[in-house]
Amino acid sequence: MTTQRDLDMVHLRLILVSGKTQDFTFSPNDSATDIAKHVFENWPAGWEEERVSSPSILRLIFQGRFLHGNVTLGALKLPAGRTTVMHLVARETLPEPNSHGQRNREKTTESNCCLLL
């Protein structure tokens, strides 16, 4: 029997760079940091070759953007009861939330061409 709590849970399918996937279920209140810690502590058997040394380097990518540690699944307004796909990568640091746009503005005076000899 399905309970209301089950319906409120968020189902994630995490994909590694290698293409391996695993499904997990989380609360809408779980943050990206909570998810990384849970995955690290419950590392799937089929992912042994991709095991990382610490949960702090696991990063989630959703719709092409890195999720910063305090972002909750609820804040993303993910559909409850459906499976949402996210990428899981190992990366030491994250770009600042709006640094990409700022970097592009700063480069407007620079040349982005290269010379091939």
From TrEMBL:
Would you say which domain of life the source belongs to? Eukaryota
Q: Does the keyword Protein biosynthesis apply?
A: no
Outline the extent of the Ubiquitin-like domain: 10-88
What the entry lists under Pfam families is as follows: Rad60-SLD_2 (PF13881)
The places in or outside the cell where this protein is found are: Cell membrane
The record gives the membrane topology as:
Lipid-anchor
User: How is this protein named in the record?
Assistant: Ubiquitin-like protein
What species was this sequence derived from? Answer: Xyrichtys novacula (Pearly razorfish)
* Lineage start: Eukaryota, Metazoa, Chordata, Craniata, Vertebrata
